């Protein structure tokens, strides 16, 4: 069973790609930055736990939180199904597809046949729109957009346990007959995102997490067993691993730009301008981290540290400006 007429465009980020497929099927077209911003998707985490080969930098909220936020903001009916049974998990998907509706899936990308990078990531999200002897999926443009994977690999990916995984999670969205006007919902979304970023519960998150990264990044040379491998890989994840570039700051900059066309607000314009600068600086940081590994010269990490100190202050000030937008 393959649903006909599904718009299988792959976008830059996995969760917004999946959301786009589900929403377009019901006639709701939102840009990727708008989905990301309404889902209050921007964030930051510095993660370096026991057993990790190398620190991880994350630039967004935890997996699936964006989807929950977007559904709540627009009044969408979000139905989520989870189960420990692989039989029930498959039934949850086929019931929806047989009824003509694509389904969102959260899974571990490691097991997907088409994935070039074999790294465990349990927060990956795809849309599924058909099945026969393979599963028909929509992933990011970078991963190929409309792709297929074996049913066995899909089952493994959905059932994997570990960090950020969910129990065979599948979900659908139903768009109501009447949606709120975008200009009325963008400000609450912006203010919610700013509030979380400015008031992180621990020092690894938000603007405090960026400041912590600034202090730690100079130690990455000694932290790594193989800087020539690990540093360019870290930079690649920041720029190309479904982030839209600049660790999701490009997407948030473009969201704020769309919002500035919907509402005339000086604080909003200020935040947009500041995130434009931040996006360029994040790309520069990634370049310096990569150059340190490629050149064998750790002094590039000192330059990255200086920029990260500046970024912590810049994003703090940008979010303060955005928190002050009048409802």
TrEMBL record:
<feature type="domain" description="Butirosin biosynthesis protein H N-terminal">
    <location>
        <begin position="13"/>
        <end position="140"/>
    </location>
</feature>
<dbReference type="Pfam" id="PF16169">
    <property type="entry name" value="DUF4872"/>
</dbReference>
<dbReference type="InterPro" id="IPR026935">
    <property type="entry name" value="BtrH_N"/>
</dbReference>
<dbReference type="InterPro" id="IPR032369">
    <property type="entry name" value="DUF4872"/>
</dbReference>
<feature type="domain" description="DUF4872">
    <location>
        <begin position="153"/>
        <end position="322"/>
    </location>
</feature>
<protein>
    <recommendedName>
        <fullName>Lantibiotic ABC transporter</fullName>
    </recommendedName>
</protein>
<dbReference type="Pfam" id="PF14399">
    <property type="entry name" value="BtrH_N"/>
</dbReference>
